[in-house]
Automatic annotation (TrEMBL):
Keyword Flavoprotein included in the entry's annotation: no
Lineage of origin: Bacteria, Pseudomonadati, Pseudomonadota, Alphaproteobacteria, Hyphomicrobiales
A Gene Ontology cellular-component term: cytoplasm
Pfam families linked to this entry: PRA-PH
Domain of life: Bacteria
UniProt catalytic activity: 1-(5-phospho-beta-D-ribosyl)-ATP + H2O = 1-(5-phospho-beta-D-ribosyl)-5'-AMP + diphosphate + H(+)
Localization terms from the record: Cytoplasm
Top EC class of this enzyme: hydrolase
UniProt keyword list: Amino-acid biosynthesis, ATP-binding, Cytoplasm, Histidine biosynthesis, Hydrolase, Nucleotide-binding
Species, as recorded: Oricola thermophila
The protein's annotated pathway: Amino-acid biosynthesis; L-histidine biosynthesis; L-histidine from 5-phospho-alpha-D-ribose 1-diphosphate: step 2/9
Single Gene Ontology MF annotation: ATP binding
Major subcellular site: cytoplasm
Name of the protein described by the UniProt record: Phosphoribosyl-ATP pyrophosphatase
Amino acid sequence: MTEFTLAELERIVARRAASGDANSWTAKLVAGGIGKAAKKLGEEAVETVIASLAQDRAAVVAESADLLYHLLVVLHMRGVALDDVLAELEGRTAQTGLQEKAARSEE
Ligand SMILES: N=c1c2ncn([C@@H]3O[C@H](COP(=O)(O)OP(=O)(O)OP(=O)(O)O)[C@@H](O)[C@H]3O)c2ncn1[C@@H]1O[C@H](COP(=O)(O)O)[C@@H](O)[C@H]1O
């Protein structure tokens, strides 16, 4: 299992966004503005849907990776931390009372 985390990718995105590096896709996306970045995110979402409907596992993995990366870029541009999203998800889990059950089933 990989040890790579979305938190790590979030930090990379922040670093590359600020780099101004002409070779950086992240810097290019950020320089293009939220409209273009959000449109790209939408395209990646659609490509993920198409891949999932085609039952193409490799494509689902690749498109999901594109989707998560572009989501992190848009979150960065909007000043939303990944932690805020995770806290929202955690809150929903707590609401349904499933958090403890999930933890127990791992024991
Ligand atoms: N995870 C990604 C990542 N996923 C996708 N992409 C880029 O997103 C771009 C768009 O993807 P597409 O599939 O749409 O490919 P495309 O050829 O541009 O297609 P179209 O424009 O024709 O639609 C491509 O240039 C991909 O390289 C990514 N670019 C960067 N990262 C991460 O960000 C880090 C920093 O990258 P740079 O900012 O480029 O230094 C990298 O080390 C990676 O960890």
